[in-house]
Write a sequence for this structure.
């Protein structure tokens, strides 16, 4: 049983439609129009969508074909991850003016622990407001924020008043807030779990709270323990400026499906070169090489091999991947290939944000 710790002051900052907003900021012709970053009307997957596109049901991870069907006026834009990272670094510098306890989750969101902060401001809500205003004035983009006593509630709260808003859940409001919250809005409860909870009569936090720990562990395994505690306002995960990097990866989605292993090997060699650059940049090596294959029907398979020594060299990566590729016959044409390296030679590294490089 976890015991609640003294309340902290946690802010979760989440940029609004970040990739699409950057594109609209850099290209005035896109402002006010439905924009999808990634994909196209023939193939590919949407990586991000502007709020104008979301009104039509366009969301990340749906196919470009479906997105165009939802919104015939949709404008597709190729992703520019170097530009997104540049903007993200500017935003992170603003965060660091307030606290060193910044835990980035991706290029467009982060947790900040401002219990003790550099401004000496006792109000986390006012700090969040000031940070959002600075991002708007200094970067040109809007952000939303959630403020509460722990990371879980702050994360959930940041979605409440999106876009360009914030929500504070004070200590004395936590239990009521969680009890009234629809279960589908609980962070960590995905679509499949939501449906399962509905079948068990769990529709709100109050319903979840009425279930025993034994009941939740029976139906949800280890996650049951998590659900049992967070609905009671207990989430003791600290904001960590240094996060553990478990793997480093690179992958490509192809314009045309590949049906020949020869063509796949050509692409995998390029991916291995890119992965080697990332590994050497951060002085990382690993023992477990994983080949990721996504077929034309969107089913995904992985094959892994653990070596007795650490590697980071392109040649060794490629030789291992080649062996994995020929491990069994392809069941269909391939639309995506990826290589990742895990079982790394270090336990703690600064956060490495590895953005996927898409070929459209």
């Amino acid at each position: 049983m976890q015991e609640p710790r003294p309340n902290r002051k946690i802010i979760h900052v989440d940029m609004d439609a970040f990739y699409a907003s950057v594109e609209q900021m850099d290209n005035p012709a896109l402002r006010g129009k439905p924009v999808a970053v990634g994909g196209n009307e023939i193939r590919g997957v949407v990586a991000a969508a502007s709020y104008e596109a979301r009104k039509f049901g366009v969301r990340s991870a749906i196919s470009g074909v479906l997105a165009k069907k939802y919104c015939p006026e949709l404008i597709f834009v190729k992703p520019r991850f170097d530009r997104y990272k540049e903007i993200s670094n500017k935003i992170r510098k603003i965060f660091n003016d307030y606290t060193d306890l910044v835990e980035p989750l991706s290029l467009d969101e982060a947790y900040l622990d401002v219990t003790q902060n550099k401004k000496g401001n006792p109000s986390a809500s006012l700090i969040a407001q000031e940070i959002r205003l600075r991002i708007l004035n200094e970067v040109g983009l809007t952000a939303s924020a959630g403020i509460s006593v722990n990371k879980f509630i702050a994360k959930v709260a940041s979605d409440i008043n999106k876009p360009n808003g914030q929500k504070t859940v004070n200590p004395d409001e936590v239990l009521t807030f969680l009890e009234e919250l629809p279960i589908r809005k609980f962070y960590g409860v995905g679509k499949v779990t939501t449906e399962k909870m509905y079948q068990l009569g769990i529709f709100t936090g109050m319903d979840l709270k009425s279930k025993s720990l034994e009941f939740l562990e029976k139906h949800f395994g280890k996650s049951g323990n998590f659900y049992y505690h967070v609905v009671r306002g207990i989430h003791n995960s600290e904001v960590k400026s240094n996060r553990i990097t478990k793997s480093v990866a690179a992958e490509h989605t192809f314009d045309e499906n590949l049906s020949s292993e020869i063509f796949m090997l050509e692409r995998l060699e390029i991916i291995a070169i890119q992965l080697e650059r990332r590994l050497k940049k951060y002085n990382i090596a690993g023992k477990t090489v994983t080949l990721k294959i996504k077929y034309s029907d969107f089913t995904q398979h992985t094959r892994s091999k653990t070596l007795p020594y650490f590697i980071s060299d392109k040649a060794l990566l490629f030789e291992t991947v080649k062996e994995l590729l020929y491990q069994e016959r392809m069941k269909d044409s391939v639309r995506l290939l990826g290589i990742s390296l895990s079982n790394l030679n270090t336990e703690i590294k600064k956060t490495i944000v590895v953005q996927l490089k898409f070929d459209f």
